[in-house]
Design goal:
The structure is a single chain. By secondary structure, the chain is mostly helical. Among the domains are: 38 residues, no CATH class; 44 residues. It contains eight helices and two strands. A two-stranded antiparallel sheet has the order 1-2. Helix 3 packs across helix 4.
């Protein structure tokens, strides 16, 4: 097998790197030891710029339009969120909805909260649901002129309201 030359200099390539660009696109690099060290350990220029020039696709414009979008309330740009991982205010969820939805689904498996709730909340929620149900029954009992049932329901409602 003939020896390959480094892509960046006239030396013999000793390291062969295959980068996955997309599911069906790969990029092969053939580098000497010195160029490989530079490639692996020094910051590289944006590859999207090179790919854009080569393929004629305006990926940079698309990235800038997404990254340049900002929240009207706090002024946070999407690119700042991508760099820090922190949103600026609750309005960012609506400002960046299209970008955040797939991100949240990928990380959490969904976009609805499914975590823990405070221990006292279920009791409060149960009490609220029961109060709503009892008030409807009370209204029905009064309209049906079932005053004994209405009095019993009224007393139960007062008990629940005192606990809350």
């Amino acid at each position: 097998m003939a020896s390959m030359k480094c892509q960046n200099c006239p030396k013999t390539a000793t390291l062969h790197i295959t980068e996955v660009v997309s599911d069906s696109q790969f990029e092969e690099l053939h580098l000497c030891e010195e160029c490989a060290q530079k490639y692996l350990y020094e910051p590289q220029p944006a590859k999207t710029l090179i790919k854009t020039v080569e393929s004629g696709i305006s990926e940079i414009e698309e990235t800038e339009s997404i990254g340049g979008r900002q929240c009207d309330v706090c002024g946070l740009k999407f690119v700042d969120f991508r760099n820090t991982g922190r949103l600026g205010c609750p309005h960012d969820y609506t400002a960046f909805h299209a970008e955040l939805t797939p991100l949240l689904e990928g990380i959490h498996g969904g976009t609805k909260h499914a975590g823990k709730t405070p221990r006292r909340l279920p009791q409060t929620r149960q009490a609220q649901q029961e109060l709503t149900k009892l008030r409807k029954q009370l209204h029905k009992a009064v309209s049906d002129e079932a005053y004994e049932d209405a009095a019993r329901l009224r007393d139960r409602i007062r008990q629940l309201e005192e606990l809350a």
